[in-house]
Specification:
32% helix; 160 residues; Yope Regulator, Chain: A; 5 strands; 4 helices; five-stranded antiparallel sheet; alpha+beta
């Protein structure tokens, strides 16, 4: 196991009971029914990728939602360095962030997860406007086989 995967596994275990990367370097953690965070560390990589589904494009005002997404991506504000991307496989906008594993520690990783969840809430608040769609509901993970067994994300203080 690479040093990055080992570190992320340790930090995940400290943060969420039972969370760990699988053999392919992927873990999913669930905050609530609508929020599943995918964590991935590729083999021989020092980068940890965070990803979560935000929302589909509505049937009406699609351009307005895309423009709002572009505005949220502008200079990384207000998403705190996260960015929105289009996931063609599931036809949804996703929130993404990369963590350079050697440049962080358990506290930094935990803070990054908190910031990622805050950015997810901001993105959903800005993009899931009921006026744009009659059935504005939050997205759930399209990979049910991964998310059904995802441990619940337990937010707690990680002070040393």
């Amino acid at each position: 196991m690479s040093m990055a995967r080992s570190s992320v596994n340790e930090w995940l275990g400290q943060r969420v009971h039972g969370a760990a990367l699988d053999a392919s370097g992927v873990a999913t953690i669930r905050r609530d029914d609508d929020s599943v965070i995918v964590i991935e560390v590729l083999p021989d990589s020092d980068i940890c990728h965070l990803c979560a589904l935000v929302c589909p494009l509505p049937d009406i005002a699609r351009e307005a939602v895309l423009m709002a997404a572009l505005e949220l991506n502008r200079f990384g504000r207000p998403l705190g360095g996260c960015w929105l991307a289009w996931e063609d496989d599931v036809q949804m906008l996703t929130l993404c962030h990369n963590v350079l594993v050697p440049a962080t520690d358990a506290i930094g990783f935990s803070n990054t997860l908190d910031n990622f969840l805050n950015a997810l809430d901001i993105a959903r608040e800005q993009l899931m406007v009921p006026d744009w769609t009659d059935n504005a509901t939050f997205a759930t993970d399209g990979h049910a086989d991964r998310s059904d067994d995802a441990p619940a994300l337990v937010l707690h203080d990680m002070k040393a």
